[in-house]
Queue: 3 jobs
Job 1
Amino acid sequence: MKLATLKNGSRDGKLVIVSRDLTRYTDASFLAPNLQAALDDWRRISPHLAALAGSLEIGAVPSSRFHEHDAHSPLPRAYQRLGGGGDAFAGPRDPIELPGKIRDASIEAAVAVIVGDVAMAATEEAAKEAVALIVLSTDTILDGGQAGTSALSPVAVTPDELGDGWDGAVHLPLIAGARNVTSVWTSFPKLIADAAATRALGTGTIVRGAVETLSVSLGDTLRVEMKDKAGHSIFGAIERQVGRFEPA
């Protein structure tokens, strides 16, 4: 299934189910108000979300047109993030705002996973089972190495949505700018198990894989997405215009 968070003025947004072709959505907030709440009770809630997703596909529930620019990052804020920048995220279509006189920045694009609870010293097999959702991730690195804004893809997907493109790594090219990158394939069970070797990981922790680095400048548009073998977008696109930060 595919999940998204619509902006509604709150910190965590509203949880919705998105159709597999990314054209429609249906409200899922009656099951869980936001994605973190769903993850906190994932074992109980996810079957109900999956059933709702099935109903959406056959037109058995009310739906509306899904517009990616209305979406926040699926998790607008995360309790913990491994391998990346900060724990708060901009929307996937929000601008990248460069402060002061900065004109250029680097973007680290990657695949990331969102996990349920991972016990300390978990095996790689248990770590793989803990992967609840997969997303795309971008982090902005300013001149001097300071962290700028980060964003996730409009849609988070369960591993089964990738079919044979998932075996603990994502075996599909990441389209970052004009590049199709296959070198970012990462064994997430190993990453997760390594991170949990000395401590437990809480539900909603985001684990980022290997990155592809791009350069952007004022006026550029960053676009990052991934397509299935038929050429259809899986997660929607992170598409952010690079502009100048203007204090309110």
Job 2
Amino acid sequence: MSWIRRMLASLSPPPAKRLEDVTATEPAPSAPLPDFIRMVAAGEPVSDARHHEAGAVIYPYRNPRRALERVRSRAAGAGAGGSARAWTAADAAESITGGLAALPELDAQRFTLGTAGLKHRNGAEHNAFFDPAARRVIKLTMPGEFGAWGGLEDYLQRLAWVNELFDDEVLIEGWLRYPNEEHPRLVTSQPWYRVNPERPEPNLTQIDAYMWRTGFLKA
């Protein structure tokens, strides 16, 4: 899938909104928070939180692009992104104060209890929990890493592109740090799509055909 990453990296990002341009009338994401995410969210919602019809709190900046703008505003260019490595010395020093601190913090102990009964799968870039009630996958990055390459800002930009280019619904849930780990993890969620159990993963021909229909040319 490296050609997809190269293609995404070569795209010019759509014009990003400045924080001051985001008004209180901007619609909140439609998907409700998973029950255990609602349970483990720490602290009070910030002032411009929204509520969906069921009454669950929708934290602002769950949209990756809004989260990216908030991180950029808080970080002011200090260590929170644009890195060729997953976790630089600057990231280690500034990620909480200038980057991840711009996003909600989740209580690690309560998060662990909330996910204890969920099926999970560990991958090379994420740990994933499957929540059938919310019909969403809860994903945690590896400690101190944000995908295969780049820093926090790069990761959020890629998530924003995925939503815009492929009509996905990735949401930023926050971040947490387990007591036995030195670095924090970013927590996201996205819709859980059931697949044909006999063909759970697409082959390269199917991937190429899908990307071609989406408007990409293979490099």
Job 3
Amino acid sequence: MYVTCIGNFDGVHLGHRQIMKRTVELSRRLGVRSSAISMIYPWAYYFPNFPGIIYPVSQRIELILSTGIHEVITANMAEIKHLEPREFINGLIGQGVTGIVVGRDFTFGSGAKGNTALLEGMAGEMGFFVDTVPDCVLDGRRISSSWIREALAKGEIRQVNALLGQRYSIRGRVYRDQQLGSKMGFPTANITRGEERLVTPKSGVYIVRSIIEGKELFGLLNVGFRPTVQVTEEVKYEVYYFDFSGDLYDKNIEIEFLEFIRPELKFDGLQLLIEQIKHDEKIARRWLELHSEEL
């Protein structure tokens, strides 16, 4: 028997966490297991103008489980979008769901015909319960994944982290590139984020943090197209860790975003770029000193 929450849960932001907290509370009270049904991708993912999901599915599952949910079930929107609302709910009841927790704007079934009012009507008829969790609001605005994507596109990292309830991070495998950073005196690690359509933060330089082999490292991450060196067609993620020497090739690393320093710029030559990186490092080290109690 399960109490389950349903949604895309992209980002697992504060609003999602409120829904999951309620799910866990109810499951404990009733002595049953808790689960979360997460749509792998929102329907908009399949359209060209979609800016991307906040986290890859594997990371989203980890974040959901960290809230105390026992089990995460992923559902493919493309495979269930044809189901009528009653057919969809019947399937859940058949799998042992006794209660459903959703957000106020939850819709389900073919053409999004189902809403919370219909779900509550079905609950009385079919013998399960529904708990609709109110919106989670920050600064008078409802917290949503679209707001987080919007803030990422503007480089508003503090806003993003506030909405998520934790630091935004990216993960990727370090690959061997042209090693231009090392030649300039700033050894960098280039990471690839995989094949999923992920939201791209604003191009520019960020103060970041990672834990690598048990050691806390701080540094600078450049997100962008390398306009000074060699313009690329795809966004590059290149991190320079302060006071670190080691081989990161083929390692998987996670990078937490702390602060946005500046947009990506085109310089007239490598020397000017080197001077700017030195300046960026001074700014970052000073910022880290001033915010040490937060880290």
